[in-house]
Amino acid sequence: MVEIKTDTELDAMREAGRIVGRALQAVREHAATGVSLLELDELAATVIAEAGAKPAFLGYLPGFAPTPFPGVICASVNDAIVHGIPTRHRLREGDLLSVDCGAHLDGWTGDAAISFGIGATSPEDLALIEATEQALAAGIAAAQPGNRIGDISHAIAQTAAQGGYGMPADFGGHGIGRAMHEDPHVANHGRPGRGLVLRPGLALAIEPMFIAGGDGRYRIAADGWTMCTRDGSRAAHAEHTIAVTDSGPRLLTLP
Ligand code: MG
Ligand code: MG
């Protein structure tokens, strides 16, 4: 069932989303060569707790996963696309890190992700990150009242095709509100003019994930969670929670 939120409810979602934005900002500022993924996880946990919110990922157990997620953030390094577990692994110069984070506040949820390089970043990684961010911006720009879900999907897919990037076929964005994952599914591939009509009050997490090798195939690592590229090439992920409003898309997960 697709839920339509009131303006007051969207204001409450904005507060949850702001905390997610702040946690990601803190992680980005702290991430450097030699810093462990676990330290970044602890930092995000602290930001979320100090804001009086609860982490949305910790203990999360979707159908595809063998065990509850053990972290507050997903930390996906290099060929990891999404769902990386924050371990004692220490970041190295030239790594590409994707961080995904969710939080609940007063019964509402925010979900967002960023990707960035550690230290000196290769031109290929910078182009991959930029294209993923452009796809997110294009997807958000398509989230206009009267458009359809397929317009968002198509905008993302077109950006991937232009850059020659691949995307995993069965993962994408989602409705969001009281729960992190609500209807509808927001596929990263799709035809314009198809699917659910976007109405004011619809809240969506839009999240392109791009694979440098141009192939969308992935494998799940031995930990049962981390989704890695099949070809070993690098991947980037970008996500915002947004709301469709009469005056256009409203970003809910900026810091
Ligand atoms: Mg996310
Ligand atoms: Mg999400």
Task: Summarize the topology.
Blueprint lengths: L6 H24 L6 H14 L3 E2 L17 E5 L2 E3 L13 E10 L2 E10 L5 H19 L7 H15 L9 E3 L6 E5 L16 E4 L2 E3 L6 E3 L6 E3 L5 E3 L2 E6 L2 E4 L4
Bound molecules: magnesium ion (MG) (2 copies).
* Strand numbers in spatial order across the main sheet: 7-6-8-13-14
Work out the oligomeric state of the chains in this entry: single chain
Q: For the residues shown, what is the average pLDDT?
A: 97
Number of individual domains: 1
CATH topology: Creatine Amidinohydrolase
> Major sheet: size, sense and barrel closure?
5 strands, antiparallel
Number of helices: 4
Q: Indicate the low-confidence ranges by residue numbers.
A: none
The H-level CATH homologous superfamily, spelled out, is: Creatinase/methionine aminopeptidase superfamily
Distance separating the two termini? 29 Å
Bound molecule types: magnesium ion
Rg: 17 Å
Give the proportion of residues in helices: 25-40%
Series of secondary-structure elements, N-terminal to C-terminal: HHEEEEEHHEEEEEEEEE
